[in-house]
Amino acid sequence: MSLFAASDVLQFAVRMEENGGLFYRKAAELSDKSEAKKLFEYLASEEAEHKKTFEKFLSKVTLYEPTEDYPGEYLAYLHNYIDGKVFFTEEVSMTKAIDVASALEFAIQREMDAILYYTELKAFVNGDDQKAIDSIIDEERKHFAQLSEIKKNL
Length: 154
What we know:
By secondary structure, this protein is mainly alpha-helical. The chain has one domain (6-152): Ferritin (Up-down Bundle), CATH 1.20.1260. The protein contains five helices and no strands. The protein has helices spanning 6-30, 34-59, 73-83, 100-121, 130-152. Helix 2 (34-59) packs antiparallel against helix 5 (130-152). The longest helix has 26 residues, at 34-59. It is globular.
């Protein structure tokens, strides 16, 4: 028995992309290095595209809708679950200024987390959609390489 339904896993992916976009937009805003700023802005736009892809997949599966004590309770639970796992943690608060090196290191780790997550996510989508997941994994790998290169050149 699986702990989560396919719709849950896809909702996690949507939330990861939302959180990633927020992180990258804030990192771009706080960055004083133009190369890093441009990369963060680009990555924010990539996260928005990935979100659309996962929303498309989500529209094709049956949503798991357990009994709730109030409307939106289960979705709030899912969001809280994933928010603590990928992109936003207590360790990195985007409400205060952070240095570019810290933002890059944090983003590099989150890209690695995303690669692992999406590799596992493939088991929850049909064969026809796995190519789209593979292309997102490839993009996440490129993001990892781009972030690593900029960090190396700091």
